[in-house]
Amino acid sequence: MNRRPSGFFLSFFAMLGDAWREFLDAKILYLLLVLIGLLFGTALTGKIEPLPGGKSYLDLAARALAADLSGLDLAKENFADIAGRVTGSLYSISKAEPLGEDLPGGKWRVTLKRNAIPLLGKAESIGEIQERFGRIADGRLWIAEEVREEGLGTFAKAMGQQSWQMTVAPGPDLKLLWPNRFTLFAGSLELTPPKGAPLGLEVLILQKLLTTGLGGSILLLISVVVTAAFVPNMLRKGTLELLLVRPLPRWRVLVFKYIGSLLFVGALLGLLILSCWLVTGILADLWSPNILLAVPSLLLFFALLLSVSVFTGVLTRSATAAMLATVTYWVVLFIAGQMHNQVVESRLRSENAGKPRQVSVAESLRGNRGNRNPPPDPNRIPFHRSTVGRVAEGVYAVLPRTEDLDNLVDRQLMRDLAVAGPLRALVESGEFSWATGLGITGAHIGCFLLAACLIFSRRDP
Predict the structure, then answer these.
(1) pTM score
(2) Which of the listed residues 172, 204, 235 is the one where a domain comes to its end?
(3) In the chain, which end has fewer C-beta atoms inside a 10 angstrom radius, N or C?
(4) Closest CA to 337 of 437, 411, 422
(5) Contact at 8 Å (CB) between 410 and 437?
């Protein structure tokens, strides 16, 4: 026996269709599609070209043999943290010849030399070298395909000297760190320094620009403009009476309108993120799935903005007021997030003032050296101790933590794309918590919607 759909679902789909018609009637939505199309069209004119750089990564792999780095995050740990893992040997590449072009897909013939503490350092076997060479933390830069030990004599071995002839092939993670040149418009506009930049960093910047950066901001801003009129239009004389002909509580009509708007913007966000994933995959041949985390992050942020718009629309019955209040709220959240970042950086500077700057293992292996952090200025109050800084932290404590949600996406992308440096350290710090951000943001959404439903249920049409 067939059952007809319940009135609940019929009403929901009716409201969904009403929201869809309002989206199609908004001409500015087509402007959004044009702008997003231009942005992605510009990105597709880009070209990523690898530069010669294999020798430096062979040297990096050789220096990494001096310690057991398995299981470590080289972007966070420094040499003091791995002192107990040092093997007591030094390794170097004395000769390196590319077997073809010096590109991330090419093989090399190299000579690896080892100097250990005489009589104490244990000689390494071919199998150990083949297993360890090119392995850094949980990644693999090079794979030693053929290894042959050169005969240096018994005395040389006793003195800790060994040498191997090897043929090495690129490992699965070498491509991410390899320097690349990024250009737009058929090579006429160069966006990287002369020495290039790691491919992972270039892809991270491009994905951020197209999703949580410029692309996402354009989409959310126009979505705010489009949806700002939904509730005021519904409250017009005649429209609301027609909606209330259905046996529905008034609060449910408002919630259905909210959910319908959220679903359509979510579909647009999904299309944006999927397009970004395809564009960066086509340009760089990197298909990191973690960029898809930007969809729930951006959708939750828009859910917050939409709740403000719905509340203001019910309160004022004005589309202009709803739009201005929502954009103002967005600006306040942005400023509060930036002020919080300044407080965090000020606190870190004060804690490390006058101390040697910690340099990660990854930076050290690339030849970077740490300098001593500047001492504190006695005539200057640190920002996190100033009145402005404390007020900013007080305001940030009660506002939605949208910065935390964005950092969740950044954290996963940086891990996938092997990006290190100060920004990685900042987003990995305990100052940012996605659980706290999710909880506070959800509470704000609930409060705005609850207030809107209460006002809407008690107000005359």
Answers:
(1) 0.79
(2) 172
(3) N
(4) 437
(5) no
